[in-house]
Specification:
Elements: H1 2-14, E1 20-22, H2 27-36, E2 46-48, H3 62-66, H4 70-75, E3 79-83, H5 86-95, E4 99-103, H6 109-115, H7 128-142, H8 145-156, E5 162-167, H9 176-181, E6 201-207, H10 214-223, E7 227-232, E8 235-239, E9 243-248, E10 263-265, H11 275-286, E11 295-309, E12 315-317, E13 320-322, H12 325-338, H13 346-355, E14 358-365, E15 368-370, H14 376-396, H15 401-411, E16 414-426, H16 434-437, E17 441-450, E18 453-461
Parallel strand pairs: 1-2, 3-4, 5-6, 5-10, 6-9, 10-11
Antiparallel strand pairs: 7-8, 8-9, 11-16, 12-13, 14-16, 15-16, 17-18
Helix pairs in contact: 1-14, 12-14, 14-15
Length: about 475
């Protein structure tokens, strides 16, 4: 829902055409609703509400409803009207011959609006479950096997028969199956071992913030042999032969804090947040400073670079200029960071982790290579993201964004996305331990008091974190 609102804001903010708001509700209610949706500062061309006229007309009588603005509306070469009422659309189209009525879907109103821009494939319908399944399949092929196997070995070397794992981004139970069974074809070892050494049981806490995906999570767990044992509010407990799964339908930072697990994992997760907010939330939610052995593992962390191969240059089109792939994808990255709040620089995450006493233990490359033939659904999802995130800004800047997305669909270049697998742990480097972060230092300073009068003075200064310097 939050992402949908951000994308809607993006569409309205950068739309090159005038946008009017119409409603049968009074203006105060319309503006209150827009404020609640985070759209209160969008500059709309006009507001058409019944309370602006003394006889309180509605859209069912379009000429009375639009009043003196009818002439202006008649002057437009094209008039697109979105409404969730067939009756309203029918009446407006009868009175305005150039009007094109679009019935808005209650299931996915945002997609309905986006399709009218020409930036998205009209034959493609985004489905969250299909996207996560296809993404997880590519993740398996992309994860750095050396880093994965070192994580598994570290958990096995704990000497515990039961290990605790918290998955803070468990989209369709993201990493559970991989921990239980591994993937021999990709060189990924399973956590559980047949011999007597290492863990034989996993306590897996899976956080899924989208409650609408509960049914898909439930079906996936049943297909893996789990049985639902109990449900209390938004927490559902499943039992399997070698694992217990606590599915929590809530963000980890809004849930009841749990004791420090042996491992926190978040696949395709850490880059979605501002590090200065993410790291303290993790510390609070899992009491991490109480247990310096907890490992934090962030596989498939986006590094901010998306490329198409082979790339295409600038081209002229009937309506203007098609941007080069490099220029367009630069705008895409800017939209992800500026409008959707993603962090595209893992170094910022590392700095924030070190500021709180963690050190980077391992790092590996986990780039996505997405081919239209190899994973067609994820490929089309990426084009959906390109069009919805970058398209409006490209249009505002004068580029032919519609032809750019169409060119990609026609040529089907390979999509390459730069990612990294990051592993952190607290207290491994004494220099970065939390108890040293805020400790005061004592400096001895030289003071020139006057001619031939020099003295020294000791002064306490606040302790510096790894990424800080003292400026006086």
């Amino acid at each position: 829902m939050a992402r949908d609102r951000k994308l809607l804001r993006q569409l309205l903010r950068f739309c090159p055409h005038p946008i009017c708001v119409t409603s049968n509700s009074p203006s105060w209610h319309v503006r209150k609703t827009l404020e609640a949706m985070g759209l209160g500062d969008i500059q709309f061309e006009n507001f058409f509400t019944p309370d602006r006229l003394p006889f309180y007309p509605t859209k069912h009588d379009p000429k009375s409803f639009f009043g003196k603005n009818c002439e202006e509306l008649f002057s437009y070469a094209r008039l697109v009207v979105f409404d969730d009422s067939r009756s309203n659309l029918s009446r407006i189209c009868e009175n305005f011959p150039k009007a094109e009525g679009v019935l808005v879907s209650h299931q996915n109103p945002l997609t309905t609006a986006w399709l009218r821009t020409g930036l998205l494939d009209p034959e493609f319908e985004f489905d969250q479950v299909q996207y996560l399944d296809s993404k997880n399949a590519v993740d398996r092929k992309s994860i750095d096997s050396k880093v994965w196997n070192e994580i598994v070995a570290s958990l096995q070397d704990l000497g515990k028969r039961e290990v605790h794992i918290a998955d803070v981004g468990a989209g369709i139970l993201s990493m559970l199956d991989l921990f239980l069974h591994g993937d021999a074809s990709e060189g990924l070892q399973p956590l559980l071992r047949i011999d007597t050494k290492g863990p034989s049981y996993v306590h897996y806490t899976a956080y899924e913030s989208n409650a609408k995906l509960y049914a898909a999570c439930h079906q996936k767990l049943l297909s893996w042999g789990f049985i639902a044992r109990e449900k209390a509010g938004n927490v559902i407990v499943y039992e399997g032969p070698s694992a217990q799964v606590r599915l929590i339908l809530q963000n980890f930072d809004r849930s009841q804090p749990i004791p420090p697990p042996d491992l926190i994992v978040g696949c395709c997760f850490a880059d979605l947040f501002d590090p200065s907010l993410l790291v303290p939330s993790l510390i609070r939610s899992f009491s991490l400073l109480e247990n310096q052995k907890t490992i934090l593992y962030f596989p498939i962390t986006f590094e901010g670079i998306t490329q198409l191969f082979p790339p295409q240059p600038f081209e002229l089109s009937i309506d203007g200029t098609i941007p080069s792939d490099t220029a367009a994808l630069r705008v895409y990255s800017e939209a992800l960071s500026g409008d959707l709040g993603h962090n595209l620089d893992p170094k910022l995450l590392q700095d924030e982790m070190e500021r709180h006493g963690f050190t980077l233990q391992r790092k590996g490359a986990s780039n996505w290579n997405i081919d239209h033939g190899g994973n067609p659904y994820l490929y089309r999802c990426m084009l959906y993201f390109f069009g919805s995130a970058a398209g409006p800004k490209l249009q505002q800047d004068g580029w032919d964004a519609q032809c750019w997305t169409q060119r990609i669909r026609k040529r089907n270049p390979q999509i390459q996305v730069s990612n990294a697998d990051l592993v952190f742990q607290v207290g491994q480097n004494p220099e970065h331990c939390p108890h040293n972060i805020n400790s005061d230092l004592v400096s001895e300073e030289i003071y020139f008091v006057g001619p031939r009068d020099v003295t020294t003075r000791k002064q306490r200064i606040p302790g510096l974190r790894p990424t800080q310097v003292l400026s006086k």
